[in-house]
Design a protein that fits this description.
Chain lengths: 140, 140
DNA sequence: CTGCGATCTCGTAGTATCCGATATCGTAGA
DNA sequence: TCTACGATATCGGATACTACGAGATCGCAG
């Protein structure tokens, strides 16, 4: 199968869907959706983020993130507060339960990556990052 | 930017969102959504596909595809018909207008890929494909 | 203190996605 | 032949995602 080399973009989307689905299945206990998982994973470093930063990190618009953060806040996983020094920006921070969830997510992500990338050469992984980065920065 | 090497999975999702958005912007004239574009791109080889095959190709469930194909059919881009020899399966084929749209999409995809991958080594692209493929096939 | 740009939220609308149930079809087995 | 079982796709209903435009709040320059 997969006789033709297959467009990088199509392969990319397939991989995204597939990994997202695996992750959602593994993390079903948390009761989180894909977007929420993605947001928490990007918050996992513990640094506070603004809505804009987070939107850029997950690849969506700030408006989209509002509802996601709403739900995360309602569940007590994050808090919203003004950023000291610039009260326009909203600072999104993990709570204790949010940090716990983020750790679980990070471990699942790391485990999945380990399983997938086990037999591959570092050069391949490096090439992957180069391509992904180039694709992310492409403009219309 | 990109100070930390950043998880492959997060980078993957970011790239998917970014490229999808660029594509949707470029192809706004067609009046198609991301899922529809994805489906047409996967049908672009002209071969007939079944709903299951197409679902696997785009990375979603057959139920999800039904509504997408519904819309494509209503717009006259595809036809549904029974597959000769197995009337359970539904054969999805491009119409003339669907083929035209698919060509436009393929060109946009190819152009985007060319722009993004221009300066990169073939080895990097090869590594990208290896990683993406491994990620796609990972299991829970 | 006035205007302008930045940042976020809210309202609204259309899609996407899935689960469970159902209908149709193919195939193996009695 | 006919019956049971697996495969395939659709339908109904529910939830979430995503975006756009409008509005609110705030920082900053003059």
């Amino acid at each position: 199968m997969n006789a033709p080399p297959d467009s990088p973009l199509l392969a990319l989307q397939r991989a995204t869907h597939a990994t997202l689905h695996v992750l959602a299945t593994e993390l079903a206990d948390l009761g989180l959706t894909a977007a929420e998982i993605n947001a928490l994973a990007n918050l996992a470093d513990g640094r506070p983020h603004t809505a804009s930063e987070l939107a850029a990190a997950v690849g969506s618009r700030p408006t989209t993130l509002t509802s996601v953060v709403d739900r995360l806040e309602r569940r007590g996983h994050v808090t919203r507060g003004p950023r000291p020094g610039d009260r326009r920006a909203v600072q999104i921070e993990l709570t204790d339960s949010g940090r716990a969830a983020a750790v679980t997510i990070s471990e699942a992500v790391a485990g999945l990556e380990r399983r997938a990338l086990d037999g591959l050469s570092p050069a391949a992984v490096d090439g992957f990052h180069q391509v992904v980065r180039a694709l992310t920065e492409v403009r219309a």
